[in-house]
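Two proteins, back to back. First:
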Amino acid sequence: MTEVTRVRVLLVEDEGGIALLLEDMLEELGCEIVASVARISGALDVAASQAFDLAVLDVNVAGETSFDLARLLLERGTPFVFSTGYGATGLPADLASCPVLSKPFTLENLRQKIRECMGPGGG
């Protein structure tokens, strides 16, 4: 079973309350938050300058989608999970098979999605 402790996470979420909730949950799971950003431009800066193991991406970030960032992470082989209230139905065809954390979510939902993203031996 894949553990999630010490997983370095980039969090991209524009809703302050949800970002704080996710930060608390990630820390409770033993993850290290590399950065928590509320704009796609900030997330791209972090992706270009910092190392992380996993990203949690809100789908709609201040009116922009995180799809191009997700595609960049796919190219790099960096795991990520979408966080959205719309479910997988709101994803474009090329990203439809990516893991989705449906809002509202629980700590256990988050743990399971991180394990799913990191795969066997990850974390």
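And the second protein:
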Amino acid sequence: MLGELNEMQIDHFLLSQAVGRIACTDGKIPYIVPVTYVYDGKDIIIQSNLGKKIEIMRQNKNVCFEVDAMDNMANWRSVIVRGTFQELKGESAKTSREYFLNYLWPYMTSGTVHPHEHRASDQLVDDSNRIKTIMIRIKVIEKSGRFEKQ
């Protein structure tokens, strides 16, 4: 059975996932890239370092965001969000980063999973690469979702 997700199902799905794809364009060539995100019930929050997607979104704030989960070809869900890019600064960036890290930190890989990367005498893990320099909000304009279940 193919169907459409209602708003509550869409919100629940966005809240339950952590990886999505953000699509943007410079007006000539589309660009899509996977990102780690959180959904705060209203908007998508992402952290990033400066790169191609940030440069493109600074020029064209219209973006599309997609999240999917697939058990098999006959059992899947997909949500598409149309929105606008906002680069957060100051207190709003700090608040969003705290929300982002508090929500996702328990799911990030522990340094003990990769003991070969850490000296035995120095078990402190450098988490600085997990914190990106730019905080982004995708202001949701419209969202839709579909599913197939057999």
